[in-house]
Amino acid sequence: MSETLAFNSNAENLSAGLNRHGTLRSRRTKMIYWLVAAIVLLIVGGPFIPLIYQSFTDKPLYDVGEQFTLANYYNVLTSDEFRGAALNSLIFAVLSTIVSQVVGALQAICLARTNMPFKGLIAATVLTPLFLSPPVLVFGWEVVYGPAGYATALFRNTLGLEPWVLESMLGMALVGGVMHAPITFLFCRGAVALADPSMEEAARSCGASPMRIMWRITIPLLLPAITFSGMINFTNSLESLSVPLILGEPAGIQLLMPLLYKMVYGQVGADYGIAASAALMFLTIVALLLYLQTYVIGDTNRYTSVTGKASRQGLFDLGRFRWVVFLVVGGYGLIFLAIPMLGIFVRAFVTVLTPLIPVWEVLSLENFEFVAGSERFRRAVTNSVVLASGGGLIVVGFAAVTALICYRSDFRYRRLLEYLAMVPRAVPGMIGGIAFLYTILLVPGVGALRSTLVIFIIAYTAKFLPTALGTIFPNITKIGKDLDRSSRIMGADWWTTARCILFPLMIPALFSAYVLVYVQIIREYSMALFLVAPGAEVMSISILQAWIQGDVGLVAAMSTIQTAIIALFLLAATLISRIAFKAGAL
Q: Of 73, 106, 269, 508, which residue is 20 to 30 A from 122 by alpha carbon distance?
């Protein structure tokens, strides 16, 4: 009898212990849910509170005695300067989008559906703008095709004429279109790869020529991809800063983003209230454009071409014209991408770049020696690498936890958390930078972070959270939920399941997200404009500042260093992924 009582007592103690342990684990899981949600809300939504507050006050945030007013919004809406900048921004965005859509769609068709030679090499070339900092590519164009550029001077001295004017609205639109064309190319190449060739084969059997098939069948099937990428490129053009700042300002062409920048930093007694109201109005327009993306296509069923019927996709045989197409597409990559980058690399190793003096006579390492001898520029390089390496890990790690809460948890507000985490996708980098700047000015204690990299990590976590989530999410959908259920049956809570089962299975996606975020942090400049301070410099802003000061050689040297860092990192990432794949780790 006593043994039975002892057994029952032990069983009750064990049950109580398990219940207590389960309660603690449940509390830990809920604490993680709410902690992540609070951090996302704080870093994504928090900075916009000072921005909104500033837009309704008549004095800067750091001043006293401010009063509530609507004058800031009235001044923006009635300002001739703002209306002119808005009109110029609209024209630039439309022209740039037309260029990017035409170029990107034709590249996708030529590289995915024709027998053009050397397609792999050309595909790698046309994608290079995705891995370069926008100011670097624009500087390359200016060095080669600008008013004092090498090619411009060569034509002027040889033929006595200038065949182009880069610092003009058309020149800006061309450069902007070239920079955004890879987005269209990726969208359209995916759509072309999934297209059912049966309709093309039917048209071919009826005697239609390849050009007619392409015009009447292939291109119409690309309309969803062209439209979606067009909306993205139009938005990107509206929020572009590097092209209008470097090419538009010297020609007196005012656009919204440079105007906002000058209102905050470029003049004495900056009007923070007008800048805040203009930034919020611009943000509203961008958000509406992104919201319209889901409705602009309409009924997507009318574009369906992949069905259950098996089919084999063929290539358009261009015959002897395949070399003509190669020369056209390859010439585009050479003239618009390779030569500008070559120009800025060569400019880094010479004292002056002009067709009047042979390059080998002016070879010099003085630009790199100046960078190596300057503590400020050395610190900018080091800070950028540290931010990309350490900050990238923080962004990806936080995104991984956020993704699992959004897609593999029972958190009550997981859908709201997902929406909130994706909000930065609609926020231009400059607007986000202004929001963080106003937070530094208003919130006590935050100003101490101004001269550290911590404020960069916080801002970059908010900005690149959607990028990391978009890379991680497809991998999560491939992991069966039976693994979660089995783990729960064995008594593991959500965090234990995520840490011991899901995270190891997500390593390939986490690695890809890290590579993407690393490159984005290195090339980021629009948000960093408002975060830099003495002791917390980064490469992209140092390059812009050197250009403003007129030191082209220093710009070329820093651009070369930045490009080399990105190239070496991508090479190392490729080698690691190949080794890991062979070893079965990825």
A: 508
